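ok new one. same drill as before - structure tokens go in, u give me an amino acid for every spot. 151 of them this time. try not to just spam alanines like last time pls lmao
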């Protein structure tokens, strides 16, 4: 289990998930969008469908049959990625989180990255766990009694 999912099980209050997505629907979505996403983010979507984390952060969800767009307007990954024009997206960024900051997958090397308001990379993480621990959990964890944890 990932650190993020483990935190959500032990301290459910700050986590509000959209709902699990069947693997076949995620695989179909990946094929339709011709995109490769790190397996740990795919596993998170399978288990949770994305959702709201702590006060202000949203892990976006792919638009699949199980979760039609009507209930989650603006929380789908496609809407967030329309904000990246081709000119501003030369690194092949694919946004998957927004809130106090934005996070994306850098498609060319499958790294999790954080972005500033100009979509410039400000941090780079090799896994979803490292991204979560050193970004969202560092920012909000102490407010919820989550002890520091290293990777």
């Amino acid at each position: 289990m990932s650190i993020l999912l483990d935190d959500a099980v032990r301290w459910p209050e700050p986590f509000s998930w959209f709902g699990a997505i069947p693997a076949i629907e995620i695989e179909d979505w990946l094929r339709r969008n011709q995109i490769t996403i790190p397996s740990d983010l795919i596993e998170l979507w399978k288990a949770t469908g994305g959702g709201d984390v702590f006060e202000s952060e949203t892990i976006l969800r792919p638009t699949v049959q199980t979760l039609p767009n009507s209930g989650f307007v603006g929380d789908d990954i496609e809407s967030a990625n329309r904000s990246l024009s081709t000119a501003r997206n030369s690194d092949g960024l694919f946004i998957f989180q927004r809130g106090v900051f934005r996070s994306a997958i850098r498609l060319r090397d499958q790294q999790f990255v954080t972005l500033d308001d100009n979509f410039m990379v400000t941090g780079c993480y090799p896994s979803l766990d490292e991204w979560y621990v050193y970004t969202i959990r560092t920012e909000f964890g102490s407010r919820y009694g989550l002890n520091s944890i290293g990777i």
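The mean pLDDT is 86. and btw Residues 14 and 54 are 4 Å apart (CA to CA).
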